[in-house]
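[job 0412] stage=complex_fold ligand=6-O-phosphono-beta-D-tagatofuranose status=START
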Amino acid sequence: MGHAVAIWDHKAAIELTKDWNGIDQVVLRNPQGASARVSLHGGQVTSWRNDRGEELLFTSSKAIFKPPKAMRGGIPICFPQFGNCVSLEQHGFARNKVWTIDENPPPLHHNDSHGKSFVDLLLKPSEEDLKFWPHSFEFCLRVSLGADGKLTLISRIRNINSKPFSFSFAYHTYLSVSDISEVRIEGLETLDYLDNLFKRERFTEQGDAITFESEVDRVYLSSPNVIAVLDHERKRTYVIRKEGLPDTVVWNPWEKKSRAMLDFGDEEYKQMLCVDGSAIEKPITLKPGEEWTGRLELTVVPSSFCSEGLIIPS
Ligand code: TA6
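[job 0412] stage=complex_fold status=DONE, emitting structure tokens
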């Protein structure tokens, strides 16, 4: 695929290029200098930088960029399955497939395009995929970068089958943090969660912000649509807004699991935290012709905006 630059309104631009493995990727830029990169391998956002060029997503220094494995970092798309399943690979096949650019996507609201740099990607099952997961679907993923640097992912999954199917889903979001011991999450207090470290047994979170002293691998249930991840050292807060994604995965592998992952540095758990907008506890069921939308918006604000708790600018 050649290099082409299309100029969108507000001088936002997209660039079609290739990564160092020759895999097609799209670079989204806004006039202020922020950028995002989306690989056609997996439809995975691999980079999101602010207008000062600072990388906001974590990527392991040992990440493997060769298909079919998903790169360890960025925002892998977990579909049609989050977690383990007999007939599917961990977290489903979507993140291990080559997506295409959708030149004629189904229309979105004007606000989802106006003033944004965006790309629409499409995934449809191959004959091979249908052997493992016999459901015909169309998965349209819109990735956009706003003039304010906001990163938005909109997944629309339509059942083009003759019978219903169910799936679970997650935006497996690797946030870059200064030091995990300096990070807290606000918005998940008092919620029930399934703890993957205890065979997904159900527990209830205590009443204050979540901090980290050991491995955490939980699915918080029926979580709010606005969650704040405060990085004290960098005085930076990630604001996660979601729609259609009732659950929130929180994962940090800590020391022991970090050492067990070949594509992850032994000490890298200190610089990352996964906080995933997801639909896991109650899988989504689509009748023929029905469509589901899962929307994720990521912004970064100075932590001073959140000193009184979840008072987040709109
Ligand atoms: O809860 C998040 C999780 O399921 C962890 O158990 C861990 O396996 C993580 O996802 C990473 O999964 P991956 O397949 O990307 O190595």
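The domain at 2-310 is CATH 2.70.98.10 (Beta-galactosidase; Chain A, domain 5).
[job 0412] exit 0
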